[in-house]
Amino acid sequence: METERLIKIFYPPRGLLKVVSKSPLKSELTAVDEVSLKVNEGEVFGLLGPNGAGKTTLIKMLCTLIRPTSGRVLIGGVDILQEEDKAKRLIGLATADERNFYWRLTARENLEFFAALSNVPRARLKRAVSEALEQVGLTDAADNMFYSFSSGMKQKLGIARALLVNPRILFLDEPTRSLDPITALGVKQLIRKRFADDQGKTIFLSTHRLEEAEQLCDRIAIMDGGRVIFVGSVGELRKKVTQKDKYIVETKGLSDKWLAKAALRESLHDISLSNIDGNGSWRLEVKTREGDSVSKLLGEIVAGGGRVVSCYKEQCRLEDLFIDLVKGGRSN
Ligand SMILES: Nc1ncnc2c1ncn2[C@@H]1O[C@H](COP(=O)(O)OP(=O)(O)OP(=O)(O)O)[C@@H](O)[C@H]1O
Ligand SMILES: [Mg+2]
Q1: Which of 51, 188, 225, 332 has the highest CB neighbour count under 10 A?
Q2: If you measure from the C-alpha of residue 30 to the centroid of ligand 1, how many angstroms do you get, rounded to a whole number?
Q3: How many CB atoms lie within 10 A of CB 233?
Q4: Ligand 1: nearest atom to the Cα of 66
Q5: Residue 315 alpha carbon to ligand 1 centre in Å
Q6: Ligand 1 touching residue 25 (CB < 6 A)
Q7: What is the pLDDT of residue 273?
């Protein structure tokens, strides 16, 4: 799948629409701004970004649900704007929104309805529905009413619906939203093992969880304000953003003079001091690029009459990487 300078601008309603529309837009809004992405065949690709970054809008454009303002999308070599019907046969979409199902129909009846809408041939329809239910582990609940389903089951039924056309590429908008950790794990295994590894499908999913993206995705893109600000593996993201390591040093017996001097040090940026117990124990947090300067600091603590109780390097949290990157992008 490939996108070329894909743009979506939402315009405020005009004329009569202004009266009937509930759109809060006062001026135009570029929700997706020149996005060019290449997703490889069989790849699990994750889309991340803060609320309002443009993830859902991008996914909807890729699935032909909304029309781009400009740009091109190719799926398996098919231009989705020029050959929409052909493209639709390659695409499955599951959103995190279960409102699209009929609450008073069973899971099976719901899928049969959507299979018919997707032009799944009559002769194959019942089997396609049973297979989709089986794939997501809902065979036993197939004849229960949709309203009796738990969030996890609804989410899985959404994925089953996306499988009805046996798509080559599966778009999943927040597939683990509001799922408990165990159900989420089941859904992740389904995506990674069954759909990607066993069936060779290409997966394009959005998520708010970097840990999840790290477990699941070969590569990710991070969006902010409609733009893609990073593309690569989570490992590459770590390398790009982790400029400084954080060391935590706990000490005892340091003089006030020493502590005041430490706070002013220029060679170590970002040193922060906190009193642990009001009893002469201090915690120093040091952010630095060079491990050497930490060993120098430890030497100075000892030379200043202090004692090093412990010293360890704190692994950068994935959320911090994400926040650094988004903030960095905004200050440019
Ligand atoms: N139909 C629409 N009309 C006007 N503005 C829209 C429309 N759909 C989305 N937007 C706006 O486009 C921007 C991107 O929204 P989008 O739903 O794509 O973000 P998102 O990254 O999916 O966010 P979230 O993480 O909250 O799901 C937002 O500012 C949103 O308000
Ligand atoms: Mg969204």
Answers
A1: 188
A2: 10
A3: 14
A4: 1
A5: 33
A6: yes
A7: 80
Q: What CATH architecture does domain 243-315 belong to?
A: 2-Layer Sandwich (3.30)
* 83-92 per-position pLDDT tens digit: 999 999 999 9
| More reliable by pLDDT, 243 or 129 | 129
* Per-residue DSSP letter, 315: P
Per-residue model confidence as pLDDT tens digits over 131-165:
999 999 999 999 999 999 998 899 999 999 999 99
Q: 102 - beta bridge partners?
A: none
Q: Burial, 264: exposed, middle or buried (Cβ in 10 Å; 0-12, 13-18, 19+)?
A: exposed
Instruction: Tell me the domain boundaries of the chain.
Output: 2-240, 243-315
Please give the structure tokens belonging to residue 113: 């309805």
- For all residues of the chain together, what is the average pLDDT? 89
Q: Which two tokens stand for residue 40?
A: 């490889």
Q: Which CATH architecture does the domain made up of 2-240 adopt?
A: 3-Layer(aba) Sandwich (3.40)
Ligand 1 atom nearest 58 alpha carbon: 18
> Angle at Cα 102 formed by Cα 99 and Cα 103, nearest 5°?
90
Indicate which ligand has the atom closest to the C-alpha of 223: 1
